[in-house]
Amino acid sequence: MTTKSDVPVSSAAILFRLRLVLGLFMCGLVLSGLTAFPLQRELETMASLRGLDNSAKEAAHGGLDTWLLRVRDGLRDAYGRYPWIAYGTDWLAFAHLVIAMFFIGPMVNPARNIWVLWTGLIACVLVIPLAMICGPIRHIPLGWRLIDCSFGVFGAIPLCYCLILTKRLEGMTPSGSS
User: pLDDT averaged over the chain?
Assistant: First the structure.
């Protein structure tokens, strides 16, 4: 009796899986970057959807609502007085788009560009100490820091899988058999 793991998988099938997973990872980076451009509008919309349109922080029920209003009001004030501050988040958005482009290399030739996968994985791991060290300095609530850490954790999962697939591809002969 053969099991699913006994069935040989072609290099084309492995490459397809790798490209699919890496493509989804890249889409996540691009979407994350694009959402960094309209921060103030996003916060205004979120506050409105939660019924906090003209509320002050004191009127919030606590937790997420208080944090949303604090950030919204901070951006209103900062962007109103110093609109060039938003240029920093424009560069953050741009960086996400550029980082996503680096993963084109592993999509084309995973073995030759495995260093990109390792670099991405290291970056995902480093999200955690950054959030836990800089978060308290910037007065970011613990819950929000944990959300930030989750991006590193959830980003590492597809990259680890892509590393495994790349190693499998490296171990295959050109004919596609192992």
Answer: 90
